[in-house]
Specification:
This protein is of the alpha+beta class. It has one domain: YjbQ-like (Jelly Rolls, Sandwich). It has three helices and eight strands; from the N terminus they run ββαββααββββ. The strands form two sheets. The chain has a five-stranded antiparallel beta sheet. The longest helix has 14 residues.
Amino acid sequence: MFIQKEITLKPKPRGFHLITNEIVQHLPELKNIKTGTAHVFILHTSASLTINENADPSVRTDMETYFNRAVPESDAKYYEHTLEGADDMTSHIKASLLGSSVTIPITNGNFNLGTWQGIYLCEHRNRGGARNVVVTIIGE
């Protein structure tokens, strides 16, 4: 079985946000998959996806802090691509470092994530707006 859906995620402020439940809510077909794989791909170049801690929100805060130190907006003066502001090129760099997709195993109708794992939307823009992801499920 092959399923592919484009999902529009609710707008979120800059930061790292758990979106596992938001994605699952759009995938009622997931319950019919005994064994498979879900590939989640974001259709943007200034936001990214990753899998990490889903219980303690301080992890998400610390991730934002780390990436802002690693790719500071104060360095925007060194970039040419800043037409949309100081968070423009820095967002593209952060998105490239984290990546545009995650792959999750499916077991008995559920994402087979670890006990403390969740899917993050990493919003790198100050006002990124709604984000679209394509979910492709292959399974039986």
